[in-house]
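Work Package 3 (structural annotation) set out to generate three-dimensional models for the target panel prioritized at the project kickoff. During this period the team completed the workflow that converts sequence records into discrete structure tokens, so that structures can be stored uniformly alongside our sequence database. As a representative example, we reproduce one entry of 344 residues exactly as it appears in the project archive.
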Amino acid sequence: MDEKYMSKLSPTVDLCAGIYLVIVAVLSLFGNGAVLVSAASRFALLKSPELLTVNLALTDIGMALSMYPLSISSSFNHAWIGGDTTCLYYGLMGMIFSITSIMTLAVMGMIRFMVAGSPPKTGVKFQRRTISFVISGIWLYSGLWAALPLMGWGSYGPEPFGLACSIDWTGYGDSLNHSTFIIAMSVLCTFLPCLVILFTYFGIAWKLHRTYQSIQSNDLQYRSVEKRITLMALMISSGFFIAWTPYVAVSYWSMFHSREQGHMSPFISMLPCLFAKSSTVFNPFIYFIFQRTSWQELLCLQRLIVCCSHRRNLPVEGRKLGKQMVKGSDSYNFENKTDETCVG
């Protein structure tokens, strides 16, 4: 096996990294899956900007399904599995999902900035078709940047510790090809979206400070919802920054100091990479904290599934009795809407 794909860490560290990634993968799949189930159960009631939150859940699940199994198996194997082919695949998936995430957060910030403080009836509105078009554009943009190294501009390569692949940061000083790609990608896919996120949320804070001073009593509920959604988007963006900033810092350090012997130990280079993967866990929990009704919807769905499974085995009298019992619970309305499906 090529030396660059051999782990530079001890077997014990690799084992711990693999276990950590298993935990992150399970939490990510469970949490983001719950977000998608909740969104699907009330899809007709979703506000247009909430589709961006759903898109974030899709990117997190996509990352967990397409990347984590390879990282986990390589960690337990004490060497990267698959060589150049899987390295290109892993780097491609990482680029697509990471750029999609940060661009989605930037768009969320811009939309919240335009909506924040506007009148509930005459203010800025976004149709689902518009948001869907924007989301499609984000995926196309991410796919284009991810495909460029495959076309010869830039390249993918293994991380210094040998158990993951990404942009070949250490090739920055080797050729004009690598340096121009890294600079362009950094500006258009990292720094610019980050600046948009920062400036939009500072702008939101300023607009809300001015607007809340002139709130009318009949607008209080609308302002409360607006504030909650804005705070949720801010927390999701903050979680992304917290998770990815150490990785970006280490990557740029490697880029400018790659020719220095022993510029960074493999263990130190691995820690930010593992921490960045935890970003797929933050979003769903932030979403459910600020969307309290989502927990109720999931509980209602669970009750409905249990209720339906019992009803199919009960006579008509038992079904009527079950309906009377459910009537007193929070899931009564939800249960009534799907009663025909259950009883069918």
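The longest strand covers residues 156-158.
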